[in-house]
Specification:
The protein has no helices and 29 strands. By secondary structure, the chain is an all-beta fold. The chain has a single domain, classed as Neuraminidase. It is globular and about 50 Å long. About 45% of the residues are buried.
Length: about 325
């Protein structure tokens, strides 16, 4: 049976770069940078549909604020209401249509069309908001000079252009909405290990560069802009751009920490540690934010999703 746990905890104080104290909100001009943090709201775990949640990776927000989960341990997608109530599932292990083999990344530019990186099946799958299969494209079938390696990340901008991270070749592959190859993106000096990606409402692309321990940013015209976080990460994995106060949220799987930045790369606050609990993760992996600012973090080894509500903003 699906389990959704709630807590009566009032607040948690998340450490800001300048400390966590009552005097933070006295500087009105910089109020946007002074945040109390997040309070634990719920846990989504246990049986969802046919089986219990297992090794969740990427997360996305669908239509009507629903949460879509890459349930990688069961090779399926699961869609739930914001409170964790099961809606629908799609998939199961296999190599055919409507079957997946380690689904690992999600992207939804409009909350209606959903794109899935079906990683071990070497393909991108397009689905509708009810998780019905619409189309797919094999990565090995792309017209590339250098064949793609195993992809690790996926992002789609407001024009329907598709970005796929290819760490084997240290690049990002860009496809048009018809899955036709357009171009490649590389950092100054090339990526070492491009992983998960996200796109903000201005169509800026943020890429987790795991071995360089940073986030690399390209603008809407695919121009390199900046990198940030080099002093903050050990093993960054999941990333999400939130339109709520223009935040970029990054999960560090090694340290089991969630770090929140502004879009210029300034760290604002952080929380999380290794363990079992409301602010602890066995292996944090993916992250997403809904339209109300609610934060969802997948705990891969903990087989659960932790939900947090913003406070103090």
């Amino acid at each position: 049976m699906n389990r959704i746990f709630t807590t009566a905890i009032a607040t948690i104080c998340i450490v800001h770069l300048l400390g966590c104290g009552a005097g933070q909100h006295d500087v009105e001009a910089n109020l946007d940078d002074y945040i109390v943090g997040y309070v634990f709201e719920a846990e989504i775990s246990g049986r969802l549909g046919r089986v219990a949640l297992s090794k969740p990776t990427s997360l996305a927000i669908g239509a009507m604020g629903s949460l879509i989960i890459c349930d990688s341990g069961n090779n399926r997608l699961v869609k739930v209401k914001p409170n964790g109530e099961f809606i629908v599932e799609q998939g199961g292990f296999g190599f055919s249509r409507e079957q997946f083999y380690y689904p690992s990344a999600l992207a939804t530019p409009d909350g209606i069309n959903l794109y899935l990186l079906d990683s071990s099946n070497d393909r991108i799958v397009k689905l509708d908001y009810d998780l019905n299969w619409l189309d797919s494209q094999s990565l090995s079938g792309l017209d590339l000079d250098d064949p793609a390696g195993r992809a690790t990340g996926l992002a789609v901008n407001s024009f329907g252009d598709i970005y796929v991270s290819d760490p084997h070749n240290r690049r990002i592959i860009k496809l048009d909405p018809n899955f036709t190859y357009e171009s490649e993106l590389t950092d100054i000096g090339a990526f070492l290990d491009p992983m998960q990606m996200t796109i903000d409402r201005a169509d800026n692309l943020y890429i987790v560069n795991s071995e360089d321990h940073n986030v690399v940013v390209f603008d809407a015209y695919d121009n390199y802009v900046r990198s940030f976080g080099e002093e903050e990460f050990t093993e960054p994995t999941g990333i999400c751009a939130s339109s709520i106060k223009n935040r970029v949220i990054v999960v560090d799987s090694h340290e089991n920490r969630v770090r929140v930045f502004n879009t210029q790369g300034k760290i604002l606050y952080t929380f999380g540690s290794t363990g079992i609990g409301e602010y602890r993760f066995e292996q944090a992996f993916g992250v997403c934010v809904d339209g109300n600012g609610r934060l969802y973090v997948s705990d891969y080894k903990g087989n659960r999703i932790l939900v947090y509500r913003p406070v103090g903003e």
